Amino acid sequence: MKKIVKQVLGIDVAQKELVVCLGRMYDDLTLELYARGSFPNHKTGFAALVKWIKKLTVETTPVRFVMEATGVYHESLAYFLEEKGYEVSIVLPNKISNYFRTLDVKTITDKTAAEGIARFGLERKLDNWRRPRKVFKSLKQLTRERDQLMDQRTMAKNHLHAEKAEAFPNPDSIARTNAHIRFLNKQMIEIMKEIAALVREDAQVNNSVEMICTIPGVGRLTAAIVLAETNGFDLIRNKRQLTSYAGLDVREKQSGTSVKGKPRISKKGNRHLRKSMHMPSLAAITHAPKFKAVFARLVSKHGIKMKATVAVQRKLLEMIYTIHRTNTPYKKDYVKAKTNYETSMA
Fold first, then answer.
1. Which of 117, 108, 102, 188 has its CA nearest to residue 150?
2. Phi/psi at 262 (nearest 5 deg)?
3. Which of 90, 169, 251, 337 gets the most CB atoms within 10 Å of its CB?
């Protein structure tokens, strides 16, 4: 009789539902997906899921719970399972999507997604998830709240501009919009103070922010956003994984001699992380000679400023990762004359 050496539950997480697939690996390395189900995404559903798991698995081999990092909907389940002592692995979405391309799956549904995640967990050696430090979770909440307020303020300013441009502007409407903008400005100032206080209170985070801010164009807010969105780079193992997570990786379609698409960034990643690199890249291009040279060289090749700006964004993000890992300040000679990424975007 074959022996079970690995048990994995693949979980496709949605806002209100958990679609799951249970799989196991035998000592001859064969895989079996043998049980499927769905449970509500709340504590009652979590308890029912654990009860269901205990009935269908052997106690001698631990069960690993594998899920994607899908916004915030997976967090409650991850905390629940971690508190119960279960092995939990949270995988970056781009790793799962890349794995799915290797499978013969015609249609992707919640059911097939759970099956793919279970198979991924059985085939790969995954790290145990550790709950993020409270400072990173708080920073993420605050920086995202500020981003939402920024969007609201932009909408209010656009409305104000349109109102003033009318033939007969409504004075009351203009007054209310101005008051709304002042209110949003006040809230953003309060949030910035809270972010600064959080960073100062944690010596390790504060030191990391100080180091990151030695990079030209990168300020304390950008450093806080990057650390918050990556949980201090907890799930990141290398630069390529980081740029893929941010959606700054290059996608190119080429087949034979007849099909050759232009290289483009995927944009399939964390939009908050990607957005945070926009203004720093513009500042670096303007004020830092090395980045200005990279930008000018790429523009001279293809004439597209946005492509060159994205190349600088990626370079800045990679530098933030390196400086955080090595705990060493930025060095002017760090930027090399040319990178593979620049070549691929040319």
1. 188
2. -70, 140
3. 90
Lowest mean pLDDT among 54-68, 221-235, 247-261, 316-330: 247-261
Q: How far apart are CA 79 and CA 248, in angstroms?
A: 30
Pull the structure tokens for residue 125.
Answer: 């050696």
pLDDT digits (tens, 9 = 90+) for 63-91: 999 998 877 889 999 999 999 999 999 98
Give the pLDDT of residue 262. 57
DSSP β-bridge partners for residue 66: 10, 89
pLDDT beyond 70 at 255: no
**Calculated CA dihedral for residues 180, 181, 185, 186, nearest 10 degrees:** -30
Q: Are residues 20 and 37 in contact, defined by beta-carbon separation less than 8 angstroms?
A: yes
Task: Indicate left, alpha or beta for 247 from its phi (over 0: left) and psi (-120 to 50: alpha).
Answer: left
Residue with tokens 């209100």: 16
Tokens for 4, please give them: 């079970």
Position 105 scores a pLDDT of 73
From the number of C-beta atoms within 10 Å of its C-beta (0-12, 13-18, 19+), residue 249 rates as buried
Neighbouring C-beta atoms of residue 15, cutoff 10 Å: 9
Q: Which of 48-62, 122-136, 326-340 has the lowest mean pLDDT?
A: 326-340
Total-model pTM:
0.79
